[in-house]
Each structure stands twice: as structure tokens, then as C-alpha cells.
């Protein structure tokens, strides 16, 4: 009987198999690299943002706690010095003026929201509320004698910036989304007049609302509450001028 | 047979170690080309078992199959029928299993005879 005849493997067959293996490996590399790339980018950034926000949340609570502690310490200190009354009144007044306390009183609420429908082919930018719209409203309210203003719970203080970041608006470095509710405490009639006489604000209430379907509403209310500023107000570069 | 498996493994290892990648949009081309190459390789094994193996036919078959597969994908993308690559996938897939069946049968038959 004939011995087992091995099938002759030509060198071409061997080479082509190696090439096939190489192609499979390249395809594999491409898919794994691509997926690693994508999850790397968006996943990481989203995680970083939510991480930082959680961190800030914790820090904000800590600031509130520390502030309360500071207040007690100040009280004790003032008591010890025997000048409790004047000192406390002084501190309280400053605190209130700086926006570090919750305040309540009559005033107005301005609600701003994006248009519900953007007609196809139209510039979507015209149909949404921008940072400068909010700035205009806040500006007009302050001009109208508002004593305390907040946007979605973010108190407007001396260091507040209102700016846009992508599709959201940043107030006090906090991301806010529509609807934007601006609460202002002051004389409701004066505030309303101020809004009407402000160029941009009146446009928002008038032409823009009608033409683009933006939701802009003004309510006069009493018993409004504007929360305290939760951030930190410590100046690092500014020092008081001595001998004024 | 062992030599071929080894060659395949060497190719895969080389590719993985070199970490070569291609731009993602070209992945369909490579995928279909891999399928075509796989079909050619099985066809080669089959021919070897049937003792009709020819270097020239095999190498040409491998190259033309692979290029044709990529070409079909290209044409599909150009004329707006992206799904045209499915034609290549189905054609090569059917042939692949066909060849596999024949290779399997030939190997078993050889065992029984010898």
C-alpha cells in the first residue's frame, strides 16, 4: 500500500495564509482602536464634568457649613469683646448687601424659555434664549432698583458672570438650562418699568416673543425668596485702600 | 495543514504586534477583502486536496477576488448603494461554506482510504 502522501503545500499557499492572517489582524486592530478612541473621548469628558460637578456640590455645602461656623465664631468673638450689638449689625448689613444671605420680599419673576418649534430651514439660534438675553434682563432689573436677583437659584453678586457654554448658560460657573427663571426683589412696578424701557429686554417681551415664539413671561409677586450666593467671595488680588 | 495554521497565526500575530490600523471609513473594504481572501484560501486548500492546485491560479484568484470585492464596495459607495457590499459578502460567504464543506469531505475521505 502506498504510504500516506502528504498534500504538498506550495509556498504560495503558506504566504497567502499569512497575508490573510495579517488582514484579519489589521481589521481587528482598526475596530478595537476606533471603539477605544470613541469611548475614550466622550465618555471621559462626560465623566470628568459630572465628577467635577459632584465635587463642587460637596464644596458648596462645605462653604455653607463653614460660613455658618464663621458666623457663630464671629458672634462669640463679638460677645467676648463686649461689642456684640454694633459688630453684629455691621456684619449682618454687609452680609446682606453682598448677597450672602437668603432674602425675601416682593418683586417680579421673569421666565425665559426657548421656542417650542424651530421652522425647518430657519436659523435655530434665533429661537433660543442666549446668555446675553439673560444678562439684559438682569441688567434691566438691577437698573430698576432690584435689591436681590437670582437666575435659577444662582444669586447675582459682584463677581457673577453670565455667559454661554455650548448649549447651556453658565451663571456663577454653574450650568443652567431652560427655562431660565429670573427672580428679582424690589418695587415690582419700578422693575416692570425698567424692563419695558430697556432696549433688549423690551425686544424680548415684544418682537422676539411674537416673531420667534420665545416664551417670555413676567409675573409680579410678593413673598419671593432669593437664595444666598453659595460661592466664595474672598478677593485674592484686591486689597482695601487704607486711609480713605 | 499544520503549516497553514502556523502561517495564519504568524500573520495574525504580526498584525497585532505591529498594531497597524486603517482609517475607519475604509473598514468595509478590508472586511469584504478579508472575506474574499478567506474564500480563496479555502479554495486553495480544496484544490490542494483534489490535487488540482496550481500556483498561478491560486495567487491570481486570491488577488483578483480581494480586489474585486473591494471594487464592489467602492462602486456601491460611488453610486449611492452602500448595501452593494452585501452582494460581495453573500457571494463569498456562500462560496466559503461550499468550499469548507468540500474540504471537510475530502479530508474525511482521505482518512478512510488511508
Chart the SSEs and their pairings:
The complex is a heterodimer of chains A (244) and B (114).
Chain A: H1 11-81, H2 84-98, E1 103-113, H3 131-143, E2 148-151, E3 154-155, E4 162-165, E5 168-171, E6 174-176, E7 180-185, H4 188-197, H5 199-212, E8 215-226
Antiparallel strand pairs in A: 1-7, 1-8, 2-3, 2-7, 4-5, 5-6
Chain B: H1 2-18, H2 27-49, H3 55-78, H4 85-113
Helix pairs in contact in B: 2-3, 2-4, 3-4
Written account of the structure:
The complex is a heterodimer of chains A (244) and B (114). Chain A has 244 residues and is α+β, with helices and mostly antiparallel strands. Chain A has a domain at 102-226: Alpha-Beta Plaits (2-Layer Sandwich). Chain A is 50% helix and 19% strand. Chain A has five helices and eight strands; from the N terminus they run H-H-E-H-E-E-E-E-E-E-H-H-E. In chain A, the strands form two sheets. A five-stranded antiparallel beta sheet of chain A has the order 3-2-7-1-8. A three-stranded antiparallel beta sheet of chain A has the order 4-5-6, covered by helices on one side. In chain A, helix 1 (11-81) packs antiparallel against helix 2 (84-98) and helix 3 (131-143) packs across helix 4 (188-197). Chain A starts with 10 loop residues before the first helix and ends in an 18-residue tail after the last strand. Chain B is an all-alpha fold and 114 residues long. Chain B has one domain (23-113). In chain B, 82% of the residues lie in helices and 0% in strands. In chain B, helix 2 runs antiparallel to helix 3. Chain B is globular, with a radius of gyration of 16 Å. The model of chain B has no long low-confidence stretch (mean pLDDT 85). The A-B interface holds A 4, 7-10, 12-31, 33-34 and B 1, 3-4, 7-16, 19-22, 24, 27, 30-31, 33-34, 37-38, 40-41, 44-45, 48-49, 53, 55, 58-59, 62, 114.
Amino acid at each position: 500500500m502506498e504510504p500516506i502522501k502528504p498534500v504538498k503545500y506550495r509556498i504560495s499557499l503558506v504566504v497567502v495564509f499569512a497575508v490573510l492572517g495579517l488582514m484579519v489582524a489589521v481589521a481587528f486592530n482598526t475596530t478595537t482602536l476606533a471603539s477605544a478612541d470613541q469611548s475614550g473621548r466622550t465618555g471621559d469628558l462626560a465623566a470628568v464634568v459630572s465628577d467635577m460637578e459632584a465635587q463642587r456640590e460637596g464644596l458648596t455645602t462645605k462653604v455653607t457649613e463653614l460660613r455658618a461656623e464663621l458666623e457663630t465664631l464671629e458672634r462669640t468673638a463679638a460677645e467676648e469683646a463686649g461689642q456684640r450689638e454694633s459688630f453684629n449689625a455691621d456684619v449682618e448689613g454687609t452680609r446682606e448687601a453682598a448677597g450672602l444671605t437668603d432674602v425675601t420680599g416682593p418683586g417680579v419673576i421673569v421666565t425665559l424659555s426657548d421656542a417650542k418649534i424651530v421652522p425647518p430651514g430657519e436659523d435655530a439660534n434665533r429661537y433660543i434664549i442666549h446668555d446675553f438675553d439673560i444678562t439684559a434682563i438682569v441688567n434691566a432689573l438691577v437698573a430698576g432698583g432690584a435689591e436681590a436677583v437670582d437666575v435659577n437659584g444662582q444669586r447675582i453678586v459682584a463677581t457673577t458672570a453670565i455667559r454661554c457654554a455650548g448649549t447651556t448658560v453658565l451663571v456663577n460657573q454653574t450650568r443652567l438650562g431652560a427655562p431660565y427663571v429670573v427672580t428679582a426683589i424690589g418695587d415690582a412696578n419700578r422693575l416692570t418699568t425698567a424692563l419695558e424701557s430697556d432696549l433688549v429686554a423690551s425686544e424680548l417681551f415684544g418682537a422676539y416673543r411674537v416673531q420667534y415664539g420665545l416664551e417670555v413671561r413676567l409675573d409680579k409677586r410678593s413673598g419671593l425668596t432669593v437664595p444666598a450666593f453659595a460661592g466664595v467671595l474672598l478677593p485674592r488680588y484686591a486689597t482695601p485702600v487704607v486711609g480713605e | 495543514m499544520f503549516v497553514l495554521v502556523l502561517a495564519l497565526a504568524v500573520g495574525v500575530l504580526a498584525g497585532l504586534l505591529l498594531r497597524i490600523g486603517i482609517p475607519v471609513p475604509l473598514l468595509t473594504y478590508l472586511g469584504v477583502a478579508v472575506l474574499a481572501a478567506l474564500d480563496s484560501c479555502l479554495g486553495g486548500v480544496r484544490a490542494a486536496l483534489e490535487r488540482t492546485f496550481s500556483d498561478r491560479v491560486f495567487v491570481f484568484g486570491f488577488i483578483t477576488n480581494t480586489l474585486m470585492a473591494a471594487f464592489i464596495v467602492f462602486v456601491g459607495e460611488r453610486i449611492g448603494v452602500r448595501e452593494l457590499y452585501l452582494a460581495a459578502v453573500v457571494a463569498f460567504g456562500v462560496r466559503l461554506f461550499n468550499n469548507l464543506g468540500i474540504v471537510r469531505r475530502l479530508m474525511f475521505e482521505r482518512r478512510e482510504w488511508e
